[in-house]
Structure formats: structure tokens, C-alpha cells
Amino acid sequence: MKVCFIFLMFAMALSGCAIGPLVSHETARTVGRSRHEFVGGFGTAGFVAKWNYGLTENLDMGLHWESLSVGLRAKYAFLNRDKGWSFATALGTGSSIGAGTYYSGDLMASYLSGSWEPYGTLRFVHVKNDPVDFKDKDTGQIEFTVPKSQYDYGQVILGNRYWFSSHWLLSLEVSSPYAISSGLKIGNDILTSGALGYRF
What we know:
By secondary structure, this protein is mainly beta.
């Protein structure tokens, strides 16, 4: 049953409609072996829905679905603590508006102290798209001016989770996407988002 579910999600991620992910709402800590975490939220970049599953104590796999993209991602925690600092890296791939695909990489750090868990992410995204479908397209949430069929952008993300209990969380974040490829223009300097989550 688990294999069928994972295969279905992989097929969904690759069959979607070219922007990569713009939201995180994720700390460097993993969810834990055989545990799940669901997060749903809304912000400047539209809605976000995430599911993470703990394959091992330090490795999560999940589905990341936003207004503008859908994809699979894996996160590995190099330092994974119940209190204090945690550090991780994540890799993702998927598809999005503009009949394109993306590949992303995140470097993540977080610090858990009591109920508060501030986090930061440095993200790199490579996008391949059809410039005829996506050039100068206004998505309604954020505008990318795309000069060619492949481009790169980065993003700095800062956020904070508040844990109401060991299961329920509130996450607020602010981020700033920036162009790496020449000619790429991003209409929004600052993106904000809020989300609720449940871990079990």
C-alpha cells in the first residue's frame, strides 16, 4: 500500500503543468522514523500544502504542492536534535506553470527552544520551461519575467514555528527571491506566508 501511494504521488508531481517552490514552512529537524507531518497555508505566493514522511530518523520524503508548482522532495538532517540546533539539506524536483520542470536544493538551519523554533533556508532553483508559454507571464501571485528557456533563482527564507503541543504547530515566514540568471526579473521582493501543521 505504501509503495502504491508513493508511486501515485511521484506520478502526480511529474504530470503537473515554470516556477519552482517559493514557500518552505519547514525546519531542519526531520519528523522522525515512520511519522507524518501535514502543513497547509496561504500567503503572497498563494496556497501551500505539504506532506512529509520519516523514512529514517534523519531522512524525510514528501510532497510539496503550491499554487504555482508541485513536486517531490527529500530532506536529510546532518544534525538532528530535539532541542537546540539542527542542520539539514533538501533536494526536490517537480513541475509547474509553463509546462516546465524544476530542480531545487535547500540548506536549512533551525533552533528549537521550548515552543519556539526559528528557522532559515537558503534555496537554489533551476527551472526549464517553454518560453512561449511562460515569457512575461503574470501568475496572479508573483510575476517572473523569463528571458530564456532555462533560468536560475535563489531565495532566502526566514521563519518561526510555534508548537502548541507535540502535534500542532503554527508557522510564519518571510522570504526574498532573487535572480541568479541574467535577464530574469522577479516582481516581488518580499513574500510572506502563514501555515498550520499537524505531526503524528
